[in-house]
Structures are given as C-alpha cells and as structure tokens.
C-alpha cells in the first residue's frame, strides 16, 4: 500500500479544517486534553457498537468523531500529529509477530515458535 502526496495534503487540509472548526467553537480554548480524551473514549464506545453490529456507515462516522477528539487533544497539548504518528511507527516498524486467535503475538513471546509452526509459517532468520 502506497500513499501519494495528494492524499497526505488532503489529510493535512482536513486536520486544519477540524482545528479551525474547533477554535471557532472555542473547544480548544475552553477544553482540556482530559476532556477531549474522555469524549474520544465515549466515541470509542459508539465505534465499538457500530463495529459489532457491522454498521459500516456508523463506523465511518464514529472513526471520524474519535479522530476529531484526538486532533483536538493533540492541539491542546501542542503535540504535532506527524510527530506522534512518526514516533508510533518508529516503535512498531521493526516489531515482528503475527495475529493468532485475535491476538498479536510478538516474536519475543515464548509461544511464538509453536504458533508459527501451527500456522505453517516459516520464520525469517
């Protein structure tokens, strides 16, 4: 999967629009990161409900609501989203593991070799 620069620019533009909307409504000025996190947690519950019900359109709305809250919280904390995402990526980029029984099993887990064998996957050396 590759991302072209127009997609990145469109995300940047949307983030700027969300922030303008939030500033115009004094959400950034009058809210706290804690407030926005609690709101995001509430929206996560709605997202979980949509996912469990297989409601794709509801999930689209709920993902968006969660993202708006996280964008607001990051702005309040003066944390650039690019920096946060880059940090997360750098933490995971070399992580090895596999999904098994709905759980990500890291290569450092003692059960990892047995799981890989059960899945019929040869480990990279």
- What is the N-to-C succession of helices and strands? HHHHHEEH
Radius of gyration: 19 Å
Residues in β-strands, percent: 5-15%
Low-confidence stretches: none
Strand order of the largest sheet: 1-2
How much helicity do the residues have?
A: 55-70%
Shape: elongated
The major beta sheet can be summarized as: 2 strands, antiparallel
Average per-residue pLDDT, rounded, comes to: 93
Separate helix tally: 6
Number of DSSP E strands: 2
Q: What is the terminal separation in angstroms?
A: 25 Å
Class from secondary-structure proportions: mainly alpha
Descriptive labels:
mainly alpha; 125 residues
Description:
This protein is mostly helical. It is built from six helices and two strands. It has a two-stranded antiparallel ribbon. A hairpin with a 2-residue loop joins strand 1 (97-100) and strand 2 (103-106). It is elongated, with a radius of gyration of 19 Å. The mean pLDDT is 93.
What's the SSE blueprint?
Elements: H1 5-24, H2 27-30, H3 33-53, H4 56-76, H5 81-92, E1 97-100, E2 103-106, H6 112-119
Antiparallel strand pairs: 1-2
Helix pairs in contact: 1-4, 3-4
Short description:
This protein is mostly helical and 125 residues long.
